[in-house]
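Sample intake — 3-oxoacyl-[acyl-carrier-protein] reductase FabG
Collected from: Salinivirga cyanobacteriivorans
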Amino acid sequence: MKRTILITGATDGIGKQTAFRLAQLGHRIIMHGRNVRQGKKLRDLFRKETNNKFIEYVNADLTSFSDIEGLVEVLVHRNMIPDILINNAGVFQSELELVTDHKIEKTFMINYLAPFYLSYLLIPIMEEQNKQVIVNVSSMIHASHIDLNDVVNPTNFDSSKAYGASKLGNILFTKKMAREKPQLKINAVHPGVIDTKLLRSGWGGGGSDLNAGADQLIFAALELPQDTTGKYFEYSNEAEPAEAANDIKLQDGLYDLSMKLIPKSS
């Protein structure tokens, strides 16, 4: 069955390779990026190279709540509600940078709160159309703890801790939504240590090629049974995340914090 698949951060790295591979399989691909010219150029190239005309591009700055809302509006208007949402976009910030009126640390915003908000907006629409698969890209170096009182605008910013906390957040959200909506197939996946700009900026480089990362995202999106939900995967195998990821109180606390941060009209 051919699916409509939205991939955030699809103009570079693992997201780009995943989009290309899924397009080769004949799926309808919605590529998200934040540079219209680059995104449309890549869309046209992929259409030509894969002989798949069902490749679209949508633009949104994931540090902007209004842009995320606009992305969803475009999807609805163009009848492109995804069967599968892959929350892939991510950053590694070397310095503290605050975004939005709430002054939210950029790593937390892009890696965690943006996919939270995008999922929050899309899930009710996806449910109406019986489209209920979400893949959250996490990391095996997710943190063992997240301080809900200090994660939004940290007192002493540490880039590695901020990244790890955001990736723990992805798993906490995955498990929270699996509890709240058992009909939803939502899982978190570590894509592997892959040679991407993010890896080079945070850890100096190295790692496997992009196809290895794409393999993991495709596995989580297409190959898991429908009743597999709320799980964390490493290298195509279910893995046990940090103990904190299974803390229901922490899952609920992060969800409540997130609801306070997103626009009140939602």
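Post-analysis note: Residues 14 and 210 are 5 Å apart (CA to CA).
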